[in-house]
Amino acid sequence: MNTTRPSGDGAAAGVRAPALAVRGLRVALPTGADRAAAVDGPDFEVARGEVLCLVGESGSGKSVIAQAVMGLLPKTLARTAGRITLAGEDITEATPQRLAELRCVRMSMIFQEPMTALNPVMRCGQQIDEVLRYHTTLDGAARRARVREVIDEVRLPDPQRVVDSYPHQLSGGQRQRIMIAMALVLDPLLLIADEPTTALDVTTQKQILSLIRDLQRDHGTGVLFITHDFGVVAEIADRVAVMRAGRMVECRPAADLFAAPAHEYTRMLIDAVPGLTPRTRTLDPDAPVVLQTKALGKTYLGAGLPWRRHQVHAAASVDLEIRRGQTLGIVGESGSGKSTVARCIARLIDPTTGSILLSGEDIATRSRSQLRPMRRRVQVVFQDPYRSLNPRRRVGESIIEGPLNFGTSRAEALARARRLLELVRMDPKALDRYPHQFSGGQRQRLCIARALAMEPDLLIADEAVSALDVSVQAQVLRLLDEIREELDLAMLFITHDLRVAAQVCDRIAVMSRGRVVEYGDTATVFASPRDPYTQALLAAAPGRNQRFGARAAQVMPGDATA
What we know:
Elements: E1 20-28, E2 37-40, E3 44-46, E4 51-55, H1 62-70, E5 78-86, E6 89-90, H2 96-102, E7 107-110, H3 114-117, H4 124-135, H5 140-153, H6 159-164, H7 172-184, E8 190-194, H8 202-219, E9 222-227, H9 230-236, E10 239-244, E11 247-253, H10 254-259, H11 264-272, E12 289-301, E13 311-323, E14 327-331, H12 338-345, E15 353-358, E16 361-362, H13 368-371, E17 378-381, H14 385-388, H15 395-405, H16 410-423, H17 440-452, E18 458-462, H18 470-487, E19 490-495, H19 498-504, E20 507-512, E21 515-521, H20 522-527, H21 532-540
Parallel strand pairs: 4-9, 4-10, 7-8, 8-9, 14-19, 14-20, 17-18, 18-19
Antiparallel strand pairs: 1-2, 1-3, 1-5, 5-6, 10-11, 12-13, 12-15, 15-16, 20-21
């Protein structure tokens, strides 16, 4: 294989240079931005065979550092100072041609969302082969053999099917393994992993983290692992560098940092990670039942001729109950049926079987016109706050739209919207601004306010915090719990993260393959899980042996969410 590494690795000097060294890097932001530089002066190294985790909230500069190293900075950003060396070679002023030669051969990157990083019209095997065609002189047979070899290395099942599949035909975890295969097919010295497990279930996340760790050890690769989750850091890091607002606040061995974080911002991030110890709260056993499902099921028919269609049971025989003022969590992996159940309850899709009792009224078989009066009684907060609000409408118009449709006067709807913004701890003046003028956490607060504007009996939160930084996540979780208590709401909380479920759910239903496999009080389920699937979910929680959530997460100065 023609993968000989270029010279400049420091061997001539008798010293083995680190895989990556960043010295005094500064990347300026455009005029008018909220600060002068996206990255301002970090100094760190990634040794060969080491995992350095770069940690911080959104906007801290983590991904900009990765883009600068890879030579992928957008045109709106410019490096104005600093030095980047790759295995002893200064690539600060490298030409585009030289950077292209280095990518995949000496440095590779795994992106956060594989579905957008992979070419949707190329088979997965072809995409791995493309790396070999561009960077080696191997013939077709040798390339095919190497593709199969790296597919086996990343532990993908049924290799031939994977090679012949398009990205949309694979699961999220399988697509991420394809990205890892592409990144490691030429054994680079440096691997940059930019939030590669954020969108994955805890069990898939555990597999990917274990895979990266094993491959790094086998190949002696230096890994720069970017994340905002200290649970993941506890699982994989040798050393940790903490970024805040473009600056590095500390860089230390992982064990030392967890034992005694030196900076208050680091302590805040660690404390913001939800603990696995469930909360305890006295419930009213006589509170009225707001929602009850009986033998709820949803079946889809596959494509093809009617007599050849296979049935997919997305949900089957689901029995749930939520009382006023209580929160029921549904947990499970992607494809377990969580969101299907939530969409059936909200009647966004039609259930195939069973009953949905909303305060005693069965709404499972009602027509669209008959459902209109109950729409205001069930409201949903969706996962992605960036797609939940109309970018062309001021947020005030989005919040009052529902009440106006149900006959509320405009003046009363606006007055209610102002009260709700105060309830979710935002300035009422925000009603006159557009969604793009807010952060992710602020947008999710606006989505909560919009749902509450309808004065619902049941609030469904469908992965409502999974796209947020852990610190913002902690604030939104606390906010949801306060709102539930203040308004005496019934809440259905959908999540794949047992840490999150432990903090907000009074009762919990664990779903697998469309069925509820375990159901009960959260503390009981966590303390004595009966089903092997529940046991596997708890065992897969990242950093499960590390103590988190010791102190309540606080909003740091300069990180205000209002």
